[in-house]
Amino acid sequence: MKKIVLIGSGGSGKSTLARQLGSKLRLNVYHLDALFWKPNWIGVPKDKQRKVQNELVKKEKWVIDGNYSGTIDIRLTAADTIIFLDIHKIICVYRVLKRMLHYRNKTRPDMGSGCEERLDFGFLKWIWNYPKTNRPEILKKLEQLSKEKQIIILRTPKQIQNFLEEVK
After folding, report:
1. What is the C-alpha separation between 107 and 161, in angstroms, rounded?
2. Structural domains in the chain, sorted by start
3. Residue 62 pairs with which residues in a beta bridge?
4. Residue 132 class from Cβ within 10 Å (0-12 exposed, 13-18 middle, 19+ buried)?
5. Rounded Cα gap, residues 61 and 78, in angstroms
6. pTM of the model
7. Residues 6+ positions from 36 with CB-CB distance below 8 Å
8. pLDDT at position 142, please?
9. pLDDT tens-digit profile of 24-43?
Protein backbone atom coordinates (compact mmCIF):
# COMPACT_ATOMS: atom_id res chain seq x y z
CA MET A 1 0.00 0.00 0.00
CA LYS A 2 1.82 3.04 -1.31
CA LYS A 3 -0.92 4.91 -3.16
CA ILE A 4 -4.12 4.81 -1.16
CA VAL A 5 -7.47 6.39 -2.01
CA LEU A 6 -10.11 6.74 0.70
CA ILE A 7 -13.71 7.29 -0.36
CA GLY A 8 -17.05 7.20 1.44
CA SER A 9 -19.90 9.33 2.65
CA GLY A 10 -19.39 12.46 4.68
CA GLY A 11 -18.94 11.42 8.31
CA SER A 12 -17.68 7.94 7.39
CA GLY A 13 -14.23 8.64 8.84
CA LYS A 14 -12.16 9.21 5.68
CA SER A 15 -9.98 12.00 7.06
CA THR A 16 -9.38 10.30 10.39
CA LEU A 17 -8.40 7.03 8.74
CA ALA A 18 -6.23 8.91 6.23
CA ARG A 19 -4.27 10.56 9.05
CA GLN A 20 -3.89 7.26 10.89
CA LEU A 21 -2.72 5.39 7.78
CA GLY A 22 -0.37 8.20 6.83
CA SER A 23 1.23 8.11 10.26
CA LYS A 24 1.44 4.33 10.40
CA LEU A 25 2.78 3.87 6.86
CA ARG A 26 4.80 7.10 6.76
CA LEU A 27 2.90 8.42 3.76
CA ASN A 28 1.98 12.00 2.94
CA VAL A 29 -1.74 12.63 3.39
CA TYR A 30 -3.75 14.90 1.11
CA HIS A 31 -7.27 15.91 2.13
CA LEU A 32 -9.10 17.04 -0.99
CA ASP A 33 -11.41 19.27 1.07
CA ALA A 34 -8.38 21.19 2.33
CA LEU A 35 -7.14 21.62 -1.24
CA PHE A 36 -10.44 22.46 -2.93
CA TRP A 37 -12.21 24.78 -0.49
CA LYS A 38 -10.88 28.30 -0.14
CA PRO A 39 -11.88 30.75 2.65
CA ASN A 40 -15.62 31.28 3.12
CA TRP A 41 -16.41 28.02 1.33
CA ILE A 42 -15.36 29.15 -2.14
CA GLY A 43 -14.86 26.05 -4.28
CA VAL A 44 -11.91 25.54 -6.60
CA PRO A 45 -12.94 25.13 -10.28
CA LYS A 46 -12.94 21.58 -11.71
CA ASP A 47 -10.09 22.26 -14.15
CA LYS A 48 -7.84 23.29 -11.24
CA GLN A 49 -9.01 20.24 -9.24
CA ARG A 50 -7.97 18.01 -12.14
CA LYS A 51 -4.59 19.72 -12.46
CA VAL A 52 -3.84 19.43 -8.74
CA GLN A 53 -4.87 15.77 -8.60
CA ASN A 54 -2.90 14.87 -11.73
CA GLU A 55 0.19 16.31 -10.01
CA LEU A 56 -0.54 14.59 -6.68
CA VAL A 57 -0.92 11.12 -8.16
CA LYS A 58 2.49 11.39 -9.87
CA LYS A 59 4.13 11.28 -6.45
CA GLU A 60 5.66 7.97 -5.39
CA LYS A 61 3.57 7.47 -2.22
CA TRP A 62 0.43 9.04 -0.78
CA VAL A 63 -2.93 8.78 0.93
CA ILE A 64 -5.69 10.89 -0.63
CA ASP A 65 -9.08 11.22 1.02
CA GLY A 66 -12.19 12.70 -0.52
CA ASN A 67 -14.93 11.90 -2.97
CA TYR A 68 -15.17 14.56 -5.69
CA SER A 69 -16.92 12.19 -8.07
CA GLY A 70 -16.19 14.39 -11.09
CA THR A 71 -12.47 13.68 -10.74
CA ILE A 72 -12.48 10.36 -8.88
CA ASP A 73 -11.16 8.41 -11.87
CA ILE A 74 -7.83 10.28 -11.68
CA ARG A 75 -7.25 8.88 -8.19
CA LEU A 76 -8.74 5.45 -8.75
CA THR A 77 -6.56 4.88 -11.82
CA ALA A 78 -3.35 5.89 -10.01
CA ALA A 79 -4.02 4.09 -6.71
CA ASP A 80 -2.78 0.66 -5.79
CA THR A 81 -5.26 0.46 -2.88
CA ILE A 82 -8.82 1.80 -2.70
CA ILE A 83 -10.58 1.87 0.65
CA PHE A 84 -14.32 2.43 0.62
CA LEU A 85 -15.80 3.32 4.00
CA ASP A 86 -19.31 1.95 3.54
CA ILE A 87 -20.57 3.11 6.93
CA HIS A 88 -24.29 3.22 7.78
CA LYS A 89 -25.88 6.61 7.16
CA ILE A 90 -27.11 6.98 10.75
CA ILE A 91 -23.53 6.71 12.03
CA CYS A 92 -22.37 9.20 9.38
CA VAL A 93 -25.06 11.76 10.23
CA TYR A 94 -24.33 11.36 13.95
CA ARG A 95 -20.62 11.92 13.35
CA VAL A 96 -21.23 15.01 11.23
CA LEU A 97 -23.48 16.50 13.91
CA LYS A 98 -20.89 15.69 16.59
CA ARG A 99 -18.13 17.16 14.41
CA MET A 100 -20.16 20.31 13.87
CA LEU A 101 -20.50 20.82 17.63
CA HIS A 102 -16.82 20.09 18.26
CA TYR A 103 -15.54 22.46 15.57
CA ARG A 104 -18.25 25.12 15.80
CA ASN A 105 -16.80 28.47 14.69
CA LYS A 106 -13.48 26.74 13.92
CA THR A 107 -11.89 25.15 10.88
CA ARG A 108 -11.24 21.40 10.98
CA PRO A 109 -7.63 20.30 10.37
CA ASP A 110 -8.67 18.49 7.18
CA MET A 111 -10.57 21.47 5.74
CA GLY A 112 -9.46 24.48 3.77
CA SER A 113 -8.32 27.49 5.76
CA GLY A 114 -11.14 29.93 6.53
CA CYS A 115 -13.90 27.31 6.14
CA GLU A 116 -15.48 27.28 9.57
CA GLU A 117 -17.55 24.22 10.41
CA ARG A 118 -21.22 24.68 9.64
CA LEU A 119 -24.40 22.69 9.57
CA ASP A 120 -25.81 22.48 6.10
CA PHE A 121 -29.13 20.77 5.37
CA GLY A 122 -28.01 19.98 1.82
CA PHE A 123 -24.95 18.16 3.13
CA LEU A 124 -27.03 16.15 5.63
CA LYS A 125 -29.43 15.24 2.83
CA TRP A 126 -26.49 14.14 0.65
CA ILE A 127 -25.24 11.87 3.46
CA TRP A 128 -28.72 10.43 4.04
CA ASN A 129 -29.19 9.70 0.33
CA TYR A 130 -25.60 8.51 -0.27
CA PRO A 131 -26.45 4.78 -0.02
CA LYS A 132 -28.94 5.13 -2.88
CA THR A 133 -27.38 7.87 -4.98
CA ASN A 134 -23.60 7.37 -4.74
CA ARG A 135 -22.92 3.91 -3.33
CA PRO A 136 -24.15 1.86 -6.33
CA GLU A 137 -21.85 3.69 -8.76
CA ILE A 138 -18.88 3.37 -6.40
CA LEU A 139 -19.46 -0.37 -5.97
CA LYS A 140 -19.68 -0.73 -9.75
CA LYS A 141 -16.35 1.10 -10.22
CA LEU A 142 -14.72 -0.98 -7.49
CA GLU A 143 -15.93 -4.21 -9.11
CA GLN A 144 -14.39 -3.10 -12.41
CA LEU A 145 -11.06 -2.36 -10.70
CA SER A 146 -11.00 -5.41 -8.41
CA LYS A 147 -8.66 -7.47 -10.62
CA GLU A 148 -5.94 -4.82 -10.77
CA LYS A 149 -6.23 -2.96 -7.45
CA GLN A 150 -6.48 -3.91 -3.81
CA ILE A 151 -10.07 -3.06 -2.86
CA ILE A 152 -10.95 -2.83 0.82
CA ILE A 153 -14.54 -2.21 1.91
CA LEU A 154 -15.02 -1.44 5.58
CA ARG A 155 -18.61 -1.34 6.85
CA THR A 156 -18.34 -0.73 10.58
CA PRO A 157 -16.18 1.28 12.97
CA LYS A 158 -14.97 -2.06 14.39
CA GLN A 159 -13.85 -3.23 10.94
CA ILE A 160 -11.94 0.03 10.51
CA GLN A 161 -10.25 -0.46 13.90
CA ASN A 162 -9.34 -4.08 13.08
CA PHE A 163 -7.98 -3.03 9.68
CA LEU A 164 -5.78 -0.36 11.27
CA GLU A 165 -4.42 -2.86 13.79
CA GLU A 166 -3.44 -5.22 10.94
CA VAL A 167 -1.70 -2.57 8.83
CA LYS A 168 2.07 -2.79 8.94
Report:
1. 26
2. 3-166 (3.40.50.300)
3. 3
4. exposed
5. 11
6. 0.93
7. 43, 44, 49, 52, 66, 68, 112
8. 96
9. 999 999 999 989 988 888 88
